[in-house]
Amino acid sequence: MSLESQVLLALWKLYQQNQISMEQKGCIKDLLIRKDYNFYSAINDCQKLDQLEEKLLDILNCKDLQILF
Questions:
Q1: Cα separations in angstroms, 54 against 44, 57, 67
Q2: The whole model's pTM is what?
Q3: Measured between alpha carbons, how far is residue 3 from residues 18, 69 in Å?
Q4: Which secondary-structure segment (H or E) carries 3?
Q5: Coil, strand, or helix at residue 50?
C-alpha cells in the first residue's frame, strides 16, 4: 500500500473515531495534494498505521508547526 493510501486510511479512521474534524482531514489532504516536502519527511518513518495516526494527530495538534506553515 502506498504512503498516500496509508495516510488516507489513517485519516478515515481518525475521523470515524471523532478524533479529527472534517476541516483537519482537509488540511492533511491538502498537504498530500501539494506533495509537501516537510509533511512527507515527517511521516515517512512511520512503519505502522498506529504510528502514522499518532504523527498525524501531532501535526494537527500543532506539535509539529513547521509542517503546517
A1: 13, 5, 15
A2: 0.83
A3: 22, 21
A4: helix 3-16
A5: helix
- C-beta pairs of 49-57 under 8 Å, 24+ apart in sequence: 49/6, 49/9, 49/10, 49/13, 52/6, 52/7, 52/10, 53/10, 53/13, 53/14, 56/7, 56/10, 56/11, 56/14, 56/20, 56/28, 57/14, 57/19, 57/20
Give the model confidence (pLDDT) of 10-39 as tens digits. 999 999 999 999 999 999 999 999 999 999
Specify the pLDDT at position 63. Answer: 56
**19: DSSP letter:** S
Please tell me the total count of domains within the chain: 1
Q: Which residue range(s) make up the domain with 34?
A: 3-68
